[in-house]
Amino acid sequence: MVALSPLERQLAAFCAFFTRLFPLWVILAAVSAFHAPQLYLWFDNTCITYGLMFVMAGMGLTLTFSEIISVFTKQPQLLLLGMVLQYTILPIFGYFISRYLAAQPGIAPGLAVGVALVSCMPGGTASNIVAYIAKGDMPLSIMMTTASTLMAIFTTPLLTSLLVGTLVPVDPRAMFLSVLQLVLAPVLAGTAMNQFFPAAVARVKLYTPFLATVVVFLIVGSMIASNVAVVASSGAAIIASVFVLHSTGFMLGYALSKALGLSDRIARTNSIEVGMQSSALAAVLAKVHFAADPVVVAPCVLSACTHATVGSLLAGYWAATVKDGD
């Protein structure tokens, strides 16, 4: 345990409090960017890319290489179940929802692509914050986010090719390289820093969740600010589709876990991990691989606001009704 000065303890407490309000900041970013886009336009695509890499590196700072290995060896049955739920529920429903949207007259095909793309993402780092508020199983939550993120270098290009490839051409090799650059490389870099410089990192990682929250705030704000017209014209069908997609993930993640006889604590954790995807990664991939069709990013941005709102409401309910240890 690192020894902190009184000032450092106050700063750490403030950062922890600020981070717990993550859903509020996401919603605030979305609303403010929609009404005052000029506030966020300075945070361009380059900033977004490096910002996402920073968030992933911050996740790596909480890990060691032995812990990454243990992700696949400790409680393997729970982790395997979590991964199956993560990479089946949303992709399946994302496929059917996107096909439905693609068949509707008046809806741009890129919007259907964006919905399918979101459904193929790994778990978002914000899920760990929400799981904490919901009194979930934190080690399992972190392991699932870590494992799904590491697996994303294979699963995201493959699933995107299968789901989106039926709508538009997809280059899975290029997407694999993007996920490798955006996810695996920074996670391993952060892990290496924690492994070899633990004393220095111990102080830094007190503040990385706060900084990651600020970065995600800016990413969401920038994505909406640069696509105000697209988001505004998305229509009720797209908003409803994204809401149904994430709500289905939350609901089935919980219901299937309970049906398999798992504890309520693990069921809450699975619900959050399945329902909350890395919308920021989806938005960056949309910008890089579907640049010719700017509407693809709209469902990704709406996804961030939706799962943050639904997740925070669920977490608040569980926090108020569940006893500690249940």
Automatic annotation (TrEMBL):
Q: Where in the cell is it found?
A: Membrane
Source domain of life is: Eukaryota
Task: Note the Pfam families from the entry.
Answer: SBF (PF01758)
Arranged from A to Z, the UniProt key words for this protein are: Membrane, Transmembrane, Transmembrane helix
This protein's name:
Uncharacterized protein
Where does this chain mainly localize?
Answer: membrane
Family membership: Belongs to the bile acid:sodium symporter (BASS) (TC 2.A.28) family.
GO cellular component terms, alphabetically, are:
chloroplast envelope; membrane
| Taxonomic lineage from the root | Eukaryota, Viridiplantae, Chlorophyta, core chlorophytes, Chlorophyceae
Name its species.
Answer: Volvox carteri f. nagariensis
Where are the bilayer-spanning segments? 12-36, 48-66, 78-98, 110-134, 146-168, 174-194, 206-230, 236-256
- What membrane topology does the UniProt entry give? Multi-pass membrane protein
